Amino acid sequence: MSRIGYARVSTIDQDLETQIVKLKAEGCDIIRSEKVSGASRDGRAELATIIDFLRPGDELVVTRLDRLGRDTRDVLNLIYECEQKAAFVTVLDPHVSTRGEMGHIVLTVLGMVAQMERRFIKERQREGIEQAKRQGVYLGGKARLDHQKVKDMHEGGAGASEIARAVGCSRMQIYRILQSNR
Predict the structure, then answer these.
(1) How far apart are CA 158 and CA 151, in angstroms?
(2) How many Å from the N-terminal Cα to the C-terminal Cα in the chain?
(3) Residue range(s) defining the domain that contains residue 167
(4) Claim to verify: residue 110 and residue 168 sit in the same structural domain
(5) Which residue in 19, 58, 86, 164 has the fewest CB atoms around it within 10 Å?
(6) 45 in a domain, yes or no?
(7) pLDDT tens-digit readout, 119-148
(8) Catalytic pick among 10, 40, 161, 180
(9) Domain containing 23 — which CATH number?
(10) Is 33 a catalytic residue?
(11) What are phi and psi of 58, to 5 degrees?
């Protein structure tokens, strides 16, 4: 039986260290991490790898339920997939596990709360942007990557992998930038 930790943050500039330290302290043999949105399971390769390799008796451990996902259906589907492999899911904060029937109920409720919280965040964000636009102070989102540097490196013969390492992002992001500059 293995305890497998999963750590996730939504953006590249967020830090995974706090989650990793907690998972190590819980005795996780393996810890997989990624920097990708939890809004859906798309693009979450590390989580998919964990699910694929779960064996009977293994335990998937996350620090908080929203690290698994912010959509109730996705979270419940993940838990179901783990159960189909005779594996368990444990959330550290608050401490809940699928080892008992009450754990299933609590995780379902927590999943619903996480989804509701995500909707509230999006609504507040949308309202704030609309208000800023009305006041004429909305300038749009801040560019996280230097698009000109990406374009210059590409024109200089650098490949997507090399550019991605240089600017600190994924190759997919490089492809998107290059395609948007055409």
Answers:
(1) 10
(2) 51
(3) 147-180
(4) no
(5) 86
(6) yes
(7) 888 899 889 888 988 888 887 777 778 888
(8) 10
(9) 3.40.50.1390
(10) no
(11) -70, 160
